[in-house]
User: Fold Ribonuclease P protein component from Micromonospora gifhornensis.
Amino acid sequence: MLTAAQRLRRSSDFAAAVRSGRRAGRGTVVVHLTLPGTTGGTPDVTPEPVRGGTEENSVPESRAGFVVSKAVGPAVVRNKVRRRLRHLVRERLSELPAGSTLVVRALPAAAEATYQRLGADLDDALRAARTSRGRRR
Assistant:
């Protein structure tokens, strides 16, 4: 499970990450990654303060959110895909720079994908999103 400080909750946070983040898609997932200090910047919404935490000396945590639409399947399948993705992202979130925002969108192929394939696609997509390819024309 992701901690409260690591989860995206508001639609404005999702929209900012999708709008200004780097997008990379692989077979079962599409990721939108916003790195701090890159062009496009960080989301224009500050993260919610954590209860009991001090804001002066806290390092901004990397945060993640998930989008699993009805195209993936019925509720049972969507929730299974979301749980798998949440577990996979939890292991990889510490590898991202502090203050990063990640939105993982599941594609319909994720419904039949194995856990290993979801992990491989997520790794490939994160690697592609982290490397700068320059501007397209």
Notes: Confidence is low (pLDDT under 50) at residues 39-45. The CA atoms of residues 5 and 50 lie 6 Å apart. The longest strand covers residues 29-34. DSSP finds three helices and four strands in the chain.
